[in-house]
Amino acid sequence: MTNKELIHSDFQIKEVEAVVRRDAFTTIHVHVPPYETNILRNLFGRENVTVFERPSKTTITPEQEYDRLCAKYGHEVVAKVYGEDDGDRLMEIVEGLMKEGQLPVQEKALEGVLEQEPSETKGAKKR
User: Fold this and answer.
1) I need a surface site. Which of 21, 80, 103, 122 has the fewest CB within 10 A?
2) Which are the contacts of 11, defined by CB distance < 8 A and separation ≥ 6?
3) Model pTM score
4) Which of helix, strand or coil describes residue 127?
5) How many CA atoms lie within 13 A of 24 on its CB side?
6) Quick one: average pLDDT of 50-70?
7) Counting runs of H as helices and runs of E as strands, what totals does the chain give?
8) pLDDT, position 11
9) What angle do CA 52, 71, 43 make, to 5 degrees?
10) Alpha helix locations (H) across 45-87?
11) 63-75 pLDDT, tens per residue?
12) Are 8 and 63 in contact (CB under 8 A)?
């Protein structure tokens, strides 16, 4: 998948629930893409962020994720976590998650093909 293919495209990726302990009296629950938990851990400390899997997905526009995170957390924080590469490292992570999301669809297609093969060979003579 090239960056040209990603331009202005929305994709569904898995979402996680992060429970963030901001201080002794404040705990927040947020639903974010998995890579956003790295920023939360950087801001609040690894020991103060607990991540739980969720069955739901969220829609993202990959080429806008770096800008969205910068607007939400500040450029300095995002650059500290993902580097000063204008989002290249983040884009690699997002592309990896998108490929993960595509695997079940490909597996279902393969299962459909495999289920059809025995019925097509019915009545065929063995050599």
Assistant:
1) 122
2) 59, 60, 61, 62, 98, 101
3) 0.70
4) coil
5) 0
6) 91
7) 5, 3
8) 86
9) 50
10) 65-73, 75-82
11) 899 999 999 999 9
12) yes
